Amino acid sequence: MYQGLLDLNLSAAYNGVIDGWLGKGYVNPFYRQWGECPPEYIREHCRYSYVQVRSRNPLSARADFGFYCDAMNLKGMWGFAYYWDSSDWYIAWPFPENDGRYGTTVGWEMLHAGIQDSRCLHTLHELAARKGETVQFKLPAMPELMRMEAEELAALRNEIIEEILNLSHNDKEKQ
């Protein structure tokens, strides 16, 4: 029954996409009558997703908008947030609290870092394709990515940058 339903074919609730990449089916909690969508269908058809972005979990914002998208072959991720006078919802700008303090934009900053992670990976693949080279870097699978800490995600980006520099350096040696 899930086939042909816009909610799952084009964009899926983030947990549903992750479930599919972890080998689990997904049941939309609002439309249980649609039945379970099998993981194979999710992996093959879901190319966009959406997720709430909150400052209280900046590592999640980085991973969600970066390497997770790449690991799940997503073309895009929509982020959304609400402001209900709560400091963990700050994304783009710090709102003043009643006591005069301002919140943080760390969620937004880490979302940006995730996009930069993904851009580095795409740059590597584009450069290698232009040069007829094989990319040596392999992004870990979702289960492993989901266990990584900030330092490990940064190390992945550094590894990608190192390979970009090596490919670029090889170009200069040939000239």
List the helices and strands and how they pair.
Elements (H helix, E strand, L loop, with lengths): L5 H4 L1 E3 H8 L17 H7 L2 E5 L5 H7 L2 H5 L4 E5 L25 H26 L10 H4 L4 H25 L1
Parallel strand pairs: 1-2, 2-3
Helix pairs in contact: 2-3, 4-6, 6-8
Residue-averaged pLDDT, rounded? 81
Q: How many angstroms separate the termini?
A: 59 Å
Number of helices: 8
Q: How helical, in percent, are the residues? A: 40-55%
Oligomer: single chain
Structural class designation: mainly alpha
Largest sheet at a glance? 3 strands, parallel
SSE string, helix = H, strand = E? HEHHEHHEHHH
Unreliable stretches covering 5 or more consecutive residues: 6-11
Strand order of the largest sheet: 1-2-3
The general outline is flat
Strand portion: 5-15%
Count the E strands: 3
Radius of gyration: 19 Å
